[in-house]
Design brief:
alpha+beta, five-stranded mixed sheet, two-stranded antiparallel sheet, 2 helices, about 30% strand, disordered C terminus
Length: about 120
């Protein structure tokens, strides 16, 4: 299963990696490894984690106060947010209707068909 980061989720992930790396050398890498391990758990058991909305779920990241908010669409894992668990609950909900996301660091945009 492929996975994609929403652009703001990618920024959250990169920002957290930078924060932890500045706090302690090597900790940013450990955070990144835990996030990717969380993604692997989601891919293996996509329906096992807490339901947050009709199509969204959250899987907690081990060792760090973060959760991955995600959706499964057409056999693709879409990561909506890399959310700190003690800050602004629900802020990510505005992202649910957006069609722009990143695939492994590359921008991808779904084109909507519009009638003229």
């Amino acid at each position: 299963m492929r996975f994609y980061f929403h652009p703001e989720a990618r920024e959250e992930f990169d920002g957290a990696v930078d924060f932890y790396e500045q706090s302690q050398a090597g900790l940013g890498l450990e955070f990144a490894e835990e996030v990717y391990a969380t993604i692997a758990r989601i891919v293996q058991y996509p329906d096992a984690w807490a339901v947050l909305s009709e199509n969204s779920r959250r899987c907690l990241v081990n060792r760090f106060p973060y959760g991955l908010i995600y959706q499964i669409k057409s056999h693709t894992l879409r990561i909506i947010a890399v959310a700190h668990l003690h800050r602004r609950p629900g802020y990510w909900k505005e992202r649910l209707g957006q069609n722009t996301y990143k695939a492994s660091g590359v921008n991808r945009e779904k084109k909507s068909k519009t009638k003229k």
